[in-house]
Amino acid sequence: MHKIENYIGGEMVTPASGEYFDNIEPATGEAYSLIPDSDGRDVNLATDAAKLAFPAWSATPPEERFAILMRLVSLIERDLEPLALAESKDNGKPVSLARSVDIPRAAANFRFYATAAMHLANESHETFGIGGVHAINYTLRQPVGVAGCISPWNLPLYLFTWKIAPAIAAGCTVVAKPSEVTPMTAHLLSKLCIEAGLPPGVLNIVHGTGPKVGSAIVAHKDIKAISFTGGTATGEEIARVAAPMFKKLSLELGGKNPNIIFADCNYDEMLATTVRSSFSNQGEICLCGSRIFVERPHYDQFKRDFVERVSSLKVGDPNDPATDVGAIVSKQHFEKILSYVDLAKTEGGRILTGGSIASVSSSVPSVVPTATTENTDADTEIIVRKLNGYFIEPTVIEGLAHDCRTNQEEIFGPVVTIMPFDTEEEVIAHANSVRYGLAATLWTENLSRAHRISSKLESGIVWVNCWMLRDLRTPFGGVKDSGIGREGGFEALKFFTEEKNVCVRM
Ligand code: NDP
Asked: In Å, how far from its chain's centre is CA 489?
């Protein structure tokens, strides 16, 4: 079976333990490759390599960093197809999504920060003090040193590169850990880094579990900043360790996003987008809107049309271009989602569509010999094989109060609830009633209402009449238990640098 290896000091290396564990394909539930079971010893090695590389990399002119990162962009684009296939197999997402979103975005992350590195400028202030004192204050923005980047499984290469690209562009060196559940594209990226000529030690990737590798990164005294995306409970644990060490911390955590639909919206646009914002990537996007609030005059029509659209989504083989909803990433997560469907029923929810495990088959074209022994021609036969992985039907639930557990806790799967509302005040209060505050979606043609409600929603991002329309220059992150700090734009470059004020008296 194919062995994934750590990438340390510019080389592919085996873990110190010599041990590996299975990497499971979500569509089949079977192991298909091996992941290094790394630990603190590998993190130490990676940190030493990153420290060694830091003086030269931080002094490398931005133009040279730009050139290397742009070579990486070309290589990711060259390998778009194998990377998309690998992402789909490893995560369970439809290959069409990996091809159109995940991998292009990984290339875009490097492209964006390659160019941004050349535009990072420092401020200066001319100072006039008492008694004719005259000085110039200027700010130096210096890379923090070795940065730790830890990412989740839902958008594996997309979110991994969203951290690494600004860190490297800012002049930091990096020790990174992808999720143990989806390590494959990070592994393929390490090979591309070697091909692109990224100097050894600038990026180091250590594979393994959160408790062994992630926690060793967080606790390492020489890692000065931690950029983490994942669950809120893990974020809390990281803050507990890193905050007393005075590390810089960026935490992008969970969400329970509201999707608010007013009766005056552009209905067709809203309906099509709401299907996407509910079930893209099996609902495993931190930005998906899982609580749908519909203004009462539209509620019955919305319910009918939405349920009809959702029940026609094709749950299928991630490798099939016609598949809308692929496999859930792991058995553990699959069971968690199903337990929430059960909880919703006990809380009085009515399942309008879905709610069950989906039975999925794969149709693989195969070339088989024809019956006659004389005939050496081959006919193509379609072999149908049942996939024994983790598939759940897209599920819509109604009849639940906004404050029940199903509507308060993050499910992070293909499960949404719909609820009617009557007034703006009511829907704002219900939308804000959760501990999270990552993203909100708002559908209305009333401009004043759009501005009014956007300012009142407790959310890091508000999309009005759209969803996931991303501009990499904008600040990205959440409020409340959805995290601290912002990624994106210059915010991320600033995160990976320390500001130093120099005051020169004239
Ligand atoms: P987890 O918090 O379980 O894991 C995230 C990463 O942290 C993984 O690489 C994991 O390793 C690692 N990790 C686990 N324990 C520790 C630890 N003690 N110290 C350091 N690292 C650790 O999240 P999931 O992977 O399950 O991702 C889903 C979550 O991510 C959801 O809550 C979702 O909302 C959130 N998310 C937030 C986003 C945002 O931008 N705000 C975007 C995308 C997802 P391993 O998996 O190997 O155990």
From this structure: 16
Name the CA radius of gyration of the chain, rounded.
Answer: 25
Distance from Cα 231 to the centre of ligand 1, integer Å: 5
Q: What pLDDT is stored for residue 384 in this prediction?
A: 84
Residue type, 36: P
Strands 350-353 and 436-437: unpaired
Where do runs of H (alpha helix) occur along 92-231?
A: 95-97, 103-116, 156-169, 184-196, 215-219
Four-way CATH pick for 257-357+392-474: 3.20.20.60, 3.40.50.1000, 3.40.309.10, 3.30.70.420: 3.40.309.10
- Say how far residue 270 (Cα) sits from the centre of its chain: 24
Q: Decide whether any atom of ligand 1 lies within 6 Å of the 252 Cβ.
A: yes
What is the per-residue pLDDT across 5-61, written as a single tens digit (0 to 9) for each?
A: 999 999 999 999 999 999 999 999 999 999 999 999 999 999 999 999 999 999 999
Question: What confidence tens digit (pLDDT) does each residue in 384-394 have?
Answer: 888 999 999 99
What pTM was computed for the model?
A: 0.95
What backbone torsions phi and psi does residue 260 show, to the nearest 5 degrees?
A: -105, 120
Mutate to test the pocket of ligand 1, among 227, 234, 282 (most ligand atoms within 8 A of CB): 234
Q: Are 421 and 293 in contact (CB under 8 A)?
A: yes
Tokens representing 219 are 């606790």
172, 265, 286, 288: the active-site residue: 286
Q: How many other C-beta atoms lie within 10 A of the C-beta of residue 377?
A: 8
Look at residue 495 and give its three-state secondary structure. helix
CATH H superfamily, domain 2-253+483-505: Aldehyde Dehydrogenase; Chain A, domain 1 (3.40.605.10)
Tokens encoding 384: 């149908």
Binned at pLDDT 50, 70 and 90, residue 360 comes out as very high
pLDDT at 244: 98
What share of the chain has pLDDT > 90, as a percent?
94
- According to DSSP, residue 210 is labeled I
Residue with tokens 């991320």: 492
CB of 302 closer than 8 Å to CB of 261: yes
Give φ, ψ of 42 to 5 degrees. -70, -35
Pairing of strands 461-464, 203-205: unpaired
Listed by start position, the domains of the chain span 2-253+483-505, 257-357+392-474
Helix (H) or strand (E) holding 420, with range, is: strand 415-421
Euclidean distance between the first and final Cα of the chain, in Å?
68
- Are residues 473 and 494 in contact, defined by beta-carbon separation less than 8 angstroms? no
Q: Does the CB atom of residue 284 touch ligand 1 within 6 A?
A: no
